[in-house]
């Protein structure tokens, strides 16, 4: 890594660790004691600091609120078997963060700020990394535009922040998902591949409608004809069809998931044939009906590997194979977990051990 940066540290007077119940961790609701902040102005990043987690004063005119220049990332730090802490593939998140920044006309965050910010924050909040199996410290990098005046143009000022939140398993059961045939998440030439706030905002209404019908998640389809499967709300989708691992290829409408990429590499290493291509809705429904589709799961940092149990399509519910019988996703999920928690050698060099 480059030279050590000057990061000012202000410690919280009282830690909230003792009043935090680590057996009750709803996702994203409990934050660790500190956060990291860097400010961008006049073409320069400065004022790098770790400070107590809490509100930051801000003008209600900031352009992130009005024009949506806001991007984020998500990765996890794990407590390894030997007690050390490792962050899983942070460089992939760093690269994707700056890809999102570029698309949203925001400045790139230098790699040393991204990485040393994470290291400084985890160093001070080291005790917030849970040790229980299935638990981790979720790291949320975020950047937003802070010009305090109105006008549709790229902001001149930004804040880059890192927040951390201890977390347990995200979904506790197989998912019931709906293939969305009316609303869309992303379109060609749009911003679907960027992890930007508006992509999530536009998904909330269709998601709420699906929830009313009893679904846990949506499967997004292409905006042009609702013919092809793209991804889920907060995860990529992977199927096993005729014994092959099949996943929608990454395109301008699909987020290039780190978990997806990791699983593809693990599957190939295990000798499983992998197909990254367009996957039609028809093929998935037919595969369920004729028994050639034997496994389906959502793959993401928050969701990890979550089996899909039922799929709703045009008012009909299709039940997939019993998740307990699925050897492919269970095997991959175990290997992935074992690598993250340092239980097996990290042959791919994915863990950044702090
Ligand atoms: C829309 C969307 N797709 C896919 C993913 C999975 O990506 P990753 O595995 O990098 O977490 C996420 C989560 O970050 C997401 O929000």
UniProtKB/TrEMBL annotation:
Keyword Amino-acid biosynthesis: yes
Keywords, ordered alphabetically: Amino-acid biosynthesis, Aminotransferase, Branched-chain amino acid biosynthesis, Pyridoxal phosphate, Transferase
Keyword Amino-acid biosynthesis in record: yes
UniProt-listed CDD domains: BCAT_beta_family
Enzyme class, spelled out: transferase
Biological function: Acts on leucine, isoleucine and valine.
Name of the molecule in the record: branched-chain-amino-acid transaminase
């Amino acid at each position: 890594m480059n030279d050590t940066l000057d990061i000012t540290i202000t410690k919280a007077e009282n830690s909230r660790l003792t009043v935090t119940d680590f057996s009750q961790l709803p996702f994203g609701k409990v934050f660790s004691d500190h956060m990291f902040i860097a400010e961008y102005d006049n073409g320069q990043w400065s004022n790098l600091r770790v400070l107590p987690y809490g509100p930051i004063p801000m003008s209600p005119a900031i352009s992130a609120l009005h024009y949506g220049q806001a991007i984020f990332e998500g990765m996890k730090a794990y407590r390894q078997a030997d007690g050390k802490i490792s962050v899983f593939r942070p460089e992939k998140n760093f690269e994707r963060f700056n890809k999102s920044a570029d698309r949203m006309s925001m400045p790139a965050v230098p790699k040393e700020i991204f990485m040393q910010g994470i290291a400084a924050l985890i160093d001070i909040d080291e005790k917030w990394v849970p040790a229980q199996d299935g638990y981790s410290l979720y790291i949320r990098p975020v950047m937003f535009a802070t010009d305090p005046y109105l006008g549709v143009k790229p902001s001149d000022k930004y804040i880059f922040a890192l927040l951390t939140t201890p977390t347990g398993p995200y979904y506790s059961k197989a998912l019931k998902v709906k293939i969305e045939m009316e609303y869309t998440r992303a379109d060609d030439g749009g911003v679907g591949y960027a992890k930007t706030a508006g992509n999530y905002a536009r998904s909330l209404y269709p998601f709420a409608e699906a929830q009313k019908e009893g679904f846990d998640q949506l499967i997004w389809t292409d905006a042009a004809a609702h013919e092809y499967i793209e991804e889920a709300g907060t995860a990529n989708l992977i199927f096993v069809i005729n014994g092959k691992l099949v996943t929608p290829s990454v395109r301008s409408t699909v987020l290039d998931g780190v978990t997806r990429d990791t699983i593809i590499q693990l599957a190939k290493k295990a000798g499983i044939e992998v197909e990254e291509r367009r996957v039609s809705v028809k093929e998935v429904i037919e595969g369920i009906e004729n028994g050639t589709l034997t496994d389906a799961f959502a793959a993401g940092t928050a969701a990890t590997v979550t089996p899909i149990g039922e799929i709703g399509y045009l008012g009909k519910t299709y039940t997939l194979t019993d998740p307990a019988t699925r050897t492919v996703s269970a095997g991959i999920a175990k290997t992935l977990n074992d690598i993250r928690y340092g239980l097996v050698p990290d042959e791919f060099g994915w863990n950044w051990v702090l």
